[in-house]
Amino acid sequence: MLAPPALAQQAAVVAVAAAPAVPAAVLKRAEEIVQGQCFICHGVDGESSSPAFPRLAGQNAAYVARQLADYKSGKRKSSTMQPMVEALTAEDFHALGAFYATRPTHVHEVQDPELAQVGRFIYQRGNPWSGVASCATCHGTSAQGSETLPRLAGQHAQYTENQLKSFNKRERTNDNAVMHGIASKLSELEMKAVAAYLSGLK
User: Fold this and answer.
1) 58 and 127, same structural domain?
2) Which pLDDT tens digit goes with each residue over 68-104?
C-alpha cells in the first residue's frame, strides 16, 4: 500500500497527464503579455530572480487568474500590480494562468536546512501546542495546492514569509478569512521555518 505522500504524488502525476492541452492561440496571447510587461518582475518563464516577486512557474492556472482579477477589482491591493492589469481582460487572466501553469519548475537550494526541518514539521503536522493547523491539510503534502489554493512548492522563502506576515496583519486584503487565523498563531520563527521548507520543494 502506498504511503500518503506517495499517493499524493501519484495523484499529481495522473492530474497532469489528464490535463487538457492549452490551445496554441491562448499561449501565444499570454506570451505577448508576458514579454510586454510580466517578465520585468517575474521572468520570461515565471522564475523571478528577486524574492520581492513570486515565482509563478507551475502555479495553478485558476489561482493565477483569480489573483489577477482580484488585483483589477481592487479586492487584492497592490500599487504595482493594479496598473499592470488595468487593460487586461478576464480572457487574458485565464491565458496567463494557463501559460504559467505549463512553465517548468526547478529545485532551489535551501539557505538554512536545519530551519527548514522545523518548517517541515509545522507544514506537515502543525503545532498542536499553539493550535496551528497542518498546512498540508489544504495545500497538500507536497505543497502543490489546488485550483483554488496556491502552489507553494519552490516559492521564494522571503516572499512566503512576507505573505504570512501580511495575512497576520490583515494587509493581504483577499483570501484573508482562513489565512489570518493560521498566520496569527505562527511565531516569526515558525513563519521563517515554513517558508524555508517550502522553498526547497519542487
Assistant:
1) no
2) 999 999 999 999 999 999 999 999 999 999 999 999 9
Question: Rounded mean pLDDT of 178-201?
Answer: 97
Give the amino acid at 101. Answer: A
| Cβ-contact 157, 102 below 8 angstroms | no
SS3 132: strand
Looking at 101, 131, 153, the residue that finishes a domain is 101
CA 162 to chain CA centroid, Å, is 13
Q: Are residues 73 and 119 in the same domain?
A: no
Residue 174 C-alpha cell reads as 483577499
Which residue, of 101, 130, 155, is where some domain finishes? Answer: 101
Place of cell 516577486: 53
Note whether 72 and 125 are same-domain residues: no
pLDDT at residue 9 tops 70: no
**Which of these, 158, 151, 166, lies nearest to 194 by C-alpha position?**
158
Question: Residue 135: which domain range?
Answer: 113-199
Residue linked to cell 504570512: 164
pTM: 0.89
